[in-house]
Design brief:
472 residues; Amidase signature (AS) enzymes; two-stranded antiparallel ribbon; 38% helix
């Protein structure tokens, strides 16, 4: 097996080979480091590469496994972290010039969990500044570039995570999702992006953007791999006020059980108002596949979805402005123009508007919860178009010129308001060979159902088997 073949193994495949001693953590780490060195000039996915630290971790993992101390399926697996996860002794920039030299003195909860699982941290990954944007075009670090076409965006804000996993630089990465920041780059880079239930994964040591919307989750190349990572990172954490003490689960246990009898609703409202016809067609075909696999799929109406953007916008920008208020006040010139404009908007939003938005959110969530009494899952497109050009401001959709940036998070934000678990998985390609994704949103705390349905679709199709050709 050559180095690139090693890099495109799934975690579950690599874990089996490591446990049976057919490959070693050192061999796997070196293959990924070589892959990074060959592809990074084209992708710009990393902010901080940790070559020496990764080599040390791989050596340690190899010795432990040789002595019978195998820790589980992440032991010896190369992973990456979006650069807003605190890493003790390693800088955490949050994609901004202001925190260029910030070195935390403790690890984030999920950083601890990855270390305890024996994973190998390859580095800290590129992102939109302060996680407040959907392109990962960063004025301080340059744009993260899409491995399917380096002239296109990765989506954001977890763009480096999406690019790195899709390109075989890491086997998994963590993103964060406030308005779609896991699912957007997951979609545009052709991988799996999972936003767990709000409160399922600790946010301790994760630089905040919006206290009532931020969510932590995995980005992987297969659904099973997302379940493996989720197993490792979930759990109540008293250090995080938003953490909820829910029962622990094994998310891989029932992943092969199929979807016969699952009820899936396809909302007619909102999701198809502004969408590329080829994206809409791909999701329609995917719905047919789910029906063929035994699910009961039907159209439905949830009028509250039409209010999602107005509600989420008021909440997100206001909370974001509060989070970085001192930086906006003291060093505005060191914040990129696009992020600075959104922060200033949040800073001048009247408190009464924020309170109205939170009240509207309560009514919105009640309607979505009522809809979920009838359905196990909701199915929708993840992003309205394929990845746009890095400097592209407008895109034509059904004969109209639409703002490219606005389209990126338009379809993901509805499920951040509810906090329900939502996964984005590949379901096709555009006419210019850029990935298309669909999202499946489940009931609160029903990640197992979301993963089971996504896995069933994934195994019935071939989209997850395609690889970007970087000529690296």
């Amino acid at each position: 097996m050559n180095a690139d073949e090693l890099c495109f193994l799934s975690i579950s495949e690599a874990a089996g080979l490591i446990e049976s001693r057919q490959i070693s953590p050192v061999e796997l780490m070196r293959a990924h480091l070589d892959r990074i060195e060959r592809t990074e000039p084209a992708l710009n996915a990393f902010i901080t590469l940790l070559s020496e630290e990764a080599a040390h971790s791989a050596d340690t993992a190899e010795r432990e496994i040789a002595s019978g101390e195998y820790r589980g399926p992440l032991h010896g697996i190369p992973i990456g972290l979006k650069d807003l996860y605190f890493t003790k002794g390693i800088r955490t920039t949050v994609g901004t010039k202001i925190l260029r030299d910030f070195v935390p003195d403790y690890d984030a909860a999920v950083t601890e969990k990855f270390a305890n699982a024996g994973a190998i941290l390859m580095g800290k990954l590129q992102m939109h500044e302060f996680a407040l944007g959907a392109t990962s075009v960063n004025p301080h670090d340059g744009p993260a570039r899409n491995p399917w076409n380096p002239d296109r965006i990765t989506g954001g804000s977890s763009g480096g995570s999406g690019a790195s996993v899709a390109a075989g630089q890491c086997m998994a990465a963590l993103g964060s999702d406030t308005g779609g920041s896991i699912r957007i780059p997951g979609t545009l880079c052709g991988i799996v992006g999972l936003k767990p239930t709000f409160g399922r994964v600790s946010r301790h040591g994760v630089y905040p953007l919006s206290w009532s919307l931020d969510t932590v989750g995995p980005m992987t190349r297969t659904v099973r791999d997302s379940a493996i990572v989720l197993n490792a990172i979930t759990g109540y954490d008293q250090r995080d006020p938003s953490s909820i003490d829910a029962p622990t689960e094994n998310f891989t246990a029932g992943i092969e059980d199929g979807i016969s009898g699952l009820r899936i609703g396809i909302p007619d409202d909102f999701f198809y108002d502004v969408i590329s016809p080829e994206v809409g067609e791909a999701v329609c075909v995917a719905a047919g596949v789910l029906g063929e696999l035994g699910a009961e799929v039907e159209r439905c109406s949830i009028p509250a979805l039409n209010h999602a953007l107005g509600i989420s916008s008021a909440i997100l920008v206001t909370e974001a402005a509060e989070t970085v208020f001192d930086k906006l006040r003291d060093r505005p010139e060191d914040i990129g123009a696009d992020v600075r404009a959104r922060l200033r908007l949040g800073a001048v939003t009247p408190a009464v508007d924020y309170i109205k938005a939170q009240r509207a959110r309560s009514a919105y969530n009640a309607q979505l919860e009522e809809a979920m009494q009838k359905y196990d899952l909701l199915l929708a497109p993840s992003v309205a178009v394929g990845a746009t050009g890095i400097d592209q401001e407008f895109v034509e959709v059904a004969g109209n010129q639409e703002n490219a940036l606005s389209l990126m998070s338009r379809l993901t934000r509805p499920f951040n308001l509810t906090g329900q678990p939502t996964i984005s998985i590949p379901c096709g390609f555009t006419s210019d060979d850029m990935p298309i994704g669909m999202q499946l949103a489940g009931r609160q705390w029903r990640e197992a159902t979301v993963l089971r349905a996504a896995h069933a679709y994934e195994q019935a199709t071939e989209w997850h088997t395609r690889r970007p050709n970087l000529n690296a």
